[in-house]
């Protein structure tokens, strides 16, 4: 059964939240890594590792 307009409108903001969180983490990161964990095709966790460099 194809999704209804109501289902699509409710699902869109839920997809935007992880994308916004990932973009925010990347924009704040100077050196480091962002690791995404996926279970059954769904994003379940984001780990951000920041490295500080001294020279």
Keywords:
alpha+beta, about 55 residues, elongated
Structure summary:
This protein is an alpha+beta fold.
Walk me through this protein's architecture.
44% of the residues lie in helices and 31% in strands. The protein is α+β, with helices and mostly antiparallel strands and 55 residues long. Strand 1 (32-39) and strand 2 (42-50) form a beta hairpin. It is built from one helix and two strands, in the order αββ. It has a two-stranded antiparallel ribbon. It has one helix at 5-28; strands at 32-39, 42-50.
Net shape: elongated
β-sheet strand percentage: 25-35%
Q: What's the end-to-end separation, in Å?
A: 59 Å
Mean pLDDT figure? 85
**Structural category:** alpha+beta
Major sheet details? 2 strands, antiparallel
Low-confidence stretches: none
**What's the helical proportion of residues?**
40-55%
Oligomer: single chain
- Tell me the radius of gyration: 16 Å
Helices and strands, in N-to-C order? HEE
Instruction: Please give the count of helices.
Output: 1
Question: How do the strands and helices of this protein lay out in sequence?
Answer:
Blueprint: H1 5-28, E1 32-39, E2 42-50
